[in-house]
Amino acid sequence: MDYVVTMSSCFFLQNLNVRFQTLNDFWKCLPADLVPIPGQWTHIEIVDLMENTRLLHSELCELLKMLSLSYGPLLLGFFTSSYIGLLISVYYIVNKETFFSQSSNSWEHILPLIIHLQILMFLMSIIVFVSFINEKRLQMISYLRLYRISNLHFDKKRQIKMFMNQISVCDSDQISAFGFFNINLNLVTTWNNHIDTDERSSNDVEIQQ
């Protein structure tokens, strides 16, 4: 089950990541300052490419939203169960002397820990793929902010304003675990804080005993 969730999620996420990167590459093909170049770029061609890129960006954001809604409950269960298992593993690692003394065969206890580490790698791979998508999706903002809108033609100015408004609206369409939390690199910091707190609490209990 873990393999299926991870592989299918990474497949769709990588697909969206490549598509967002392609849109960024299209935008970088536009001439500097969106100025027509005789024999290469006309005003109409520039405006058409800007509009098509904006529409494709909107469609990709919709696909991202659909992926989040469809995979949200599955990712919520996957992340929750994996996080609980990770906390249990950390508890056993901190109390390893008591843990290993219960049985002469230590591999019976080491193997579950290895499995939990593998699941942790699955979680990290999903988080990294989602972070790549967010980076590519918001990279377009940096391109749009490079232009001085006051000096542009009305058609180009309108496309940039519509694009900026569209990105601000789509900013909330992030991949989440059924709306309970967004899946991004902030989760790693949160997990580390919780794990450090659990380890310190266990150590304090041992010292008091």
TrEMBL record:
The keyword Membrane applies. It is found in: Cell membrane. Keywords: Cell membrane, Membrane, Transmembrane, Transmembrane helix. The keyword Transmembrane applies. It comes from the Eukaryota. InterPro entries: 7TM_chemorcpt. One of its GO terms (biological process) is sensory perception of taste. It is a multi-pass membrane protein. The chain crosses the membrane at residues 74-94, 114-133. GO terms for cellular component: plasma membrane. Its main location: membrane. This is Gustatory receptor. It comes from Macrosiphum euphorbiae.
